[in-house]
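Hello Y.,

Per our agreement to keep a running log of every chain we model this quarter, I'm adding this entry. I've kept the format consistent with earlier entries: sequence first, then predicted structure.
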Amino acid sequence: MYRLDATNIPYGLAVGNHDQTPNGTASAGSDTTQYTRYFGKAHFGNRPWYGGALGNNNNNDTHFDLFTANGDKYMVMYFAFNQPDYKGYNEAYEKQMLQWADSVLSAQSDRKAILVCHSMLGKPKGTTSGDKPGAGDNSLQSNFTRQGTGIYEMAKNHGNVFLMLGGHIAGEGYRKDTYNGNTIKTYLSDYQSRQSEPYGGAKDRNGGNGTMRLMRLNKTKQTLSVVTFIPQANGSVIKETDGDSQFTDALYQ
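Predicted structure for the entry above:
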């Protein structure tokens, strides 16, 4: 990740359950020492895009970034993993995160906002996108995870939120919600359980084979375009072209 620092590419990170010790314990009561060591406030504090974080210490588990592109102002906010159906769920910390996020979104209401959480959305029933590509077309809406539900219920009251992203559950998913005239699109992209061809089962999983998703926001055309690809050692890429891996949608509607 530090290679991004060397090339001055802005980035942020969403803390997942495997970044917490014990595994899945919410930030307020867990040990994220190693995450904080490499990606705490001390690391990001002097970056021009860094906005701030929840709490007064070096903990950066829940934070936000600010940037401008093509004359438009944006904010990206990251929530630490804190799933109500996990043993380590911390209800007090959930309330603290959502109250903090609510206040930041209000203070930054002139910025289009993207919300990122390790657990935001599930995959639609029947899809095999968790194991292999070529499974879906975004025609079936996914359900929010329990943490995603809480975040959406807070976010829907802010007209500047237009996009939410998550992982945690292997597969690809999508949903679209409109409240008081504002539309929020939510996407799941998680490739950790992808198998290598000929798809021989769990023993052939390679952590996603480096699969990545690129989202392009086109201000002129008012579109959001997604491409999914696997970079190869020789510099080439393998593209996934099924309907939930490569598609174009309206940007804010």
